[in-house]
């Protein structure tokens, strides 16, 4: 790894460790936690598109800069990344339902910066910065377990998001108590699924940039799941008392 990539990677990891405790006290101001005082805003759909587009585009440009993936494991990992992020950037914004609260430009700008650094670190790793993978890595238990975890997480994330998006009748902006699937046990199975995806990716890729991304995902989503959970309890007196925030029976 080049000295520049190593320095950026350490800075990126350090930023995650600083951000997590801050987010425990200050929920990122979009969606149900949107509030005044965060400056000018953009329509939510445009915000999601701008925030997420660097992830599939910059990652693909770097990972494929030398041509097709160097080995089978790299090809699988690039495909997993693209499957997640092409959906998140170019499909998800058009699945949003009802009246959407606008998103502060500040949130969008911070997310663009985060996604650009993350895609740069991970894309460059697969594009030649990392050593590549030996042929038998696709049979290594870490790779197999990681890919299984990613696919399981992707399924959980998609299923939970589908339930959430189905709660809001067209033209309305209210919230309801989600039911079914992993909502039986936790308030934010979509975040749980996302966390499983990137932990699985880090296991399968066995690389410092993928590990940094998994740490960042936890730094973002654990505090937000706690904030959502508290909000549900405050807002719905009948909220199921046995339901936890993110991890069934634990948190
Ligand atoms: P939320 O769970 O807050 O919201 C998802 C969508 O469902 C929004 O459109 C929201 O509307 C709507 N919604 C949520 N709860 C309800 C409810 N009870 N009743 C009616 N509608 C509801 O997820 P985010 O918007 O924070 O994230 C979207 C996706 O992006 C998730 O899959 C998440 O995993 C991923 N993500 C990944 C991050 C990472 O670091 N890798 C960081 C952040 C998100 P509204 O927006 O109006 O609240």
Please provide the ordered H/E string of secondary-structure elements: HEHHHHEHHHH
Low-confidence stretches: none
Arithmetic mean pLDDT: 95
State the strand order across the main sheet. Answer: 1-2
Helix % is 55-70%
The count of β-strands is 2
Helix/strand class? mainly alpha
Measured by DSSP, the beta-strand proportion falls in under 5%
Q: What's the tally of helices? A: 9
Radius of gyration: 18 Å
CA(first)-CA(last) distance: 36 Å
The major beta sheet can be summarized as:
2 strands, antiparallel
Task: Please tell me what the overall shape is.
Answer: globular
What ions, cofactors and ligands are bound? NADPH dihydro-nicotinamide-adenine-dinucleotide phosphate
Structure write-up:
- 64% of the residues lie in helices and 2% in strands.
- It is an all-alpha fold.
- Strands 1-2 form a two-stranded antiparallel ribbon.
- Helix 2 (44-52) packs antiparallel against helix 4 and helix 4 packs parallel to helix 7.
- The longest helix is centred in the last third of the chain and has 28 residues, at 208-235.
- The radius of gyration is 18 Å and the shape is globular.
- The protein binds NADPH dihydro-nicotinamide-adenine-dinucleotide phosphate (NDP).
- NADPH dihydro-nicotinamide-adenine-dinucleotide phosphate binds next to helix 7, helix 8 and helix 9.
- NADPH dihydro-nicotinamide-adenine-dinucleotide phosphate is lined by residues 31-32, 96, 100-101, 157, 161, 164-165, 167-168, 175-176, 178, 190-191, 194, 217, 220-221.
